[in-house]
Design goal:
5-stranded parallel β-sheet, 5-stranded mixed β-sheet, alpha/beta, Methyltransferase, Cobalt-precorrin-4 Transmethylase, Domain 2, Cobalt-precorrin-4 Transmethylase, domain 1, 10 strands, homodimer
Chain lengths: ~220, ~220
C-alpha cells in the first residue's frame, strides 16, 4: 500500500524547491498535478526533475465557493488517489507551502480516513519568497506577522492592527484592496509581487500598484 | 567587491534546505554562522555541504533587549562582513526563513548603507515545517494565519481572534503561555513542536504541553 505525499515545490523559482521535495517526487511513480489548463507547480518541478517515467494525473480544482461542488470534487480526486495508492506511492504537488491555503489538506483528510498514510513536505511560502525579492524583512523584533486571505471576516481590523500584513488570494479584487489600503493610509507602504520567482515577476510599490495584477500576486503591507 | 547573501537553511531538517541555498553556500568562500556556543544553522548546512575550504566566522548575537548593546553588536558584525566583502562573497546562514524574525536584516541594512549589494534567499519557516510534522493545515479557506512573537503588545487580542495562531520566541515563558492559553480556552487545540526536524524533535498536544520546552519550540493554536 502506497503513501500519499503532499509536496511543496516552493514559490515559483524552481531553485526554491527543497532537497526533500526533489527526493520524494523522484521516488513517486504517480504525480497529482493540480491545474486548470496547465499546472504551474508541475512546470516548476519539471525544471529540476525528470518526469518522463511518471504517470501524471492532472487534477482540476474548480474556483467555486459552493461547498457541495468543492466537496464532490475533493471526493472525486481522493478516489483517484486511493485507486493509485493501492499499488504505488503518490505525490501531490503544491505551489508554496502545503499547509498555507492548499487544497491538499482536503484531499488528504479523505485519503487518511480511508486508511492510507499521509506525509507532508514543507516548502517556501510565496510571502517569504516575495519579501526576499523586495529586499525587506517581514517581522521586526516584537511585531506580529498577519497572513490575511482577501475578504476574511475581520480583514479591516487585521489590516489596521500592528505588524506586517500579507494579503493573499486577492484574485480579481485588487481594485477593492487598493481602495481599502488607500483609505487606511497603508497603500504607501505596500508592495505587490506578481508571479514571484518566475520570468515575468513584477514588483510594484505604493501608489504604483495597479488593479490589473494576476492570480499569483502577494501583497505585503510593511509595519 | 563581493555580494552579501542572507541564506535560509530551513527549519532544522537538513533535507528542507533549498537548491538555491545549497548553490549560494557552495559558491561563497566566507560564511557567517550566527551562534552562541555552537551554530545550529551551520550544523544543518554541514550535513549537506562541504565546508572544509571555507572561512567560517562565528558571529555572536547577545540575547539582550538593550537597544545599545544590540546595535553596537550589529555594527561590529557588519564591519567584519564589510571587511570580507572587499575581497569575497559572504553568506550569512539563518535557520528558518531569512525574513521571519532573523537578525540578518539588521546587519544587511548596515552593509547595504556602506554600498554593498545584498541578496536574500528564502527558506522553509519553522512554523510550516512544524505544521507538516503535526499533520495539520495552518490555514483554512477564509481564515487568517497570525504569527505572534511572545509578549508582543496585542498578544491576547491576537490569540483571541479568528484563525490559526503561531507563537514564536517564547523562550523561558512557556509556563506563562500555557496559563494564557488555558485561560482563553485555547490550550486544548494547541500543539508545541520542540526542535522540529532534528533528531530530538518532540510534539506535544493540548494538556500534555509542559513548561520545560527548549528555545526552538513553535506553538500552533488551531483555529
Amino acid at each position: 500500500m502506497g503513501i500519499f505525499y503532499g509536496v511543496s515545490v516552493g514559490s515559483g523559482d524552481p531553485e526554491l524547491i527543497t532537497l526533500k521535495a526533489v527526493r520524494i517526487i523522484e521516488k513517486c511513480p504517480v504525480i497529482i498535478a493540480p491545474c486548470t489548463k496547465n499546472s504551474l507547480a508541475l512546470s516548476v518541478a519539471q525544471n529540476i526533475i525528470d518526469f518522463s517515467d511518471k504517470k501524471i494525473i492532472f487534477a482540476d480544482f474548480p474556483m467555486s465557493k459552493d461547498e457541495n461542488i468543492l466537496s464532490m470534487n475533493y471526493s472525486r480526486i481522493a478516489d483517484i488517489v486511493c485507486g493509485e495508492l493501492a499499488e504505488n506511492d503518490v505525490a501531490m504537488l503544491n505551489l508554496g507551502d502545503i499547509s498555507i491555503y492548499s487544497t491538499f489538506s482536503y484531499i488528504a483528510d479523505i485519503v487518511q480516513e480511508k486508511g492510507f498514510d499521509v506525509i507532508r513536505c514543507a516548502g517556501v511560502t510565496s510571502f517569504c519568497a516575495s519579501a526576499c525579492e523586495c529586499g525587506i524583512n517581514l517581522s521586526d523584533r516584537d511585531k506580529p506577522l498577519i497572513i490575511i486571505p482577501f475578504g476574511c471576516d475581520n480583514m479591516t481590523d487585521l489590516l489596521k492592527s500592528c505588524g506586517t500584513k500579507i494579503i493573499m488570494k486577492c484574485g480579481k479584487n485588487t481594485g477593492k484592496l487598493i481602495d481599502i489600503l488607500r483609505e487606511l493610509n497603508l497603500l504607501e507602504n505596500a508592495y505587490a509581487v506578481e508571479n514571484c520567482g518566475l520570468e515575468n515577476q513584477k514588483i510594484l510599490k505604493g501608489y504604483e500598484i495597479t488593479d490589473n495584477l494576476g492570480y499569483f500576486t502577494v501583497f505585503i503591507v510593511d509595519a
